[in-house]
Design goal:
29% helix, alpha+beta, 264 residues, four-stranded mixed beta sheet, 2 domains
Length: 264
């Protein structure tokens, strides 16, 4: 219960600060007005009314000050410890194949130049990591082999595993908490005719990589929406999110992996 309260305060700290400061300004005004009225009061009834107004305003001043102090304390002292105490809490591993999942939502065709391309809505479906294009083995090239004209062919490039400007997930942030629906934003622009897939690995998938769409997405995206998926029926806990880039032949070019925590 306290973990959810901490997460609520961290996610809404800006709005809590704004409301509390506005409340302090209002009740400080009421407090000084009541003090001025109390000094000028000549009758007991006026003094009692002014005293009640002063006490009422003072109570709310203490309340809003306490709220600001609590939020500041949580952000400064408790938030740095959440990744160890909350974000990586142990959860039982469910049976993936016994969990009912929604059918996949068809992905729209690539938008023409100049048209607004909405983010595809991805439906969670489990795909084993042996699917074509994912975790594909890097072909072994004989470094001593030569072509007919005597030239040595170049070895196949090794897929990269780190995020870079051409393949990156910018939202949600690495290590952040996601509630029910995950909206992925970033860049997938490794080349023309390239595709990409998004996979999750965590309690719901039985610690295997599972695609959240049946087919790879085939439209390059630059600092835009990569897709969104409803995870409200998924098991809570830590998940790794991996976006893998594929070339025109479906071979893995590279991948970008981040960590999130699902809390429904």
């Amino acid at each position: 219960m306290m973990d959810r309260i901490y997460l609520f305060l961290i996610r809404n700290d800006v709005w809590i600060y704004i409301v509390s400061i506005l409340g302090l300004l209002w009740y400080f005004t009421e407090f000084f007005r009541a003090v001025r009225t109390l000094r000028q009061a000549m009758f007991n009834l006026e003094k009692e009314t002014a005293t009640a107004s002063r006490s009422h305003a003072l109570g709310f001043i203490i309340f809003f000050s306490a709220v600001i102090g609590i939020v500041f304390y949580v952000n400064r002292n408790i938030a740095p410890n959440l990744p160890e105490q909350v974000l990586f809490s142990e959860t039982p591993t469910p049976d993936v194949f016994a969990t009912p999942l929604r059918p996949p939502t068809p992905i729209g065709t690539p938008a023409a130049v100049g048209e607004i391309n909405p983010a595809p809505v991805l439906a969670p479906t489990v795909t084993l990591p042996s699917s074509p294009g994912i975790d594909a083995a890097v072909p072994i090239t004989d470094t001593n082999a030569t072509t007919d004209n005597g030239e040595t062919p170049e070895a196949a490039p090794t897929p990269f595993e780190e995020c870079n400007p051409e393949l990156a997930i910018t939202e949600p942030l690495n290590g952040s908490v996601v509630f029910q629906r995950a909206i992925f934003r970033g860049t997938a622009n490794t080349g023309e005719l390239h595709q990409f897939v998004i996979e999750l690995n965590g309690p719901q998938t039985g610690d295997i990589w599972a695609r959240i769409s049946d087919t790879p997405l085939n439209q390059p995206i630059i600092s835009g929406d990569l897709g969104q998926v409803d995870l409200s029926t998924w098991q809570v806990g830590p998940y790794r999110v991996r976006m893998t880039a594929l070339d025109a032949s479906g071979q893995t070019i590279g991948s970008c992996t981040i960590q999130i925590t699902l809390d429904n």
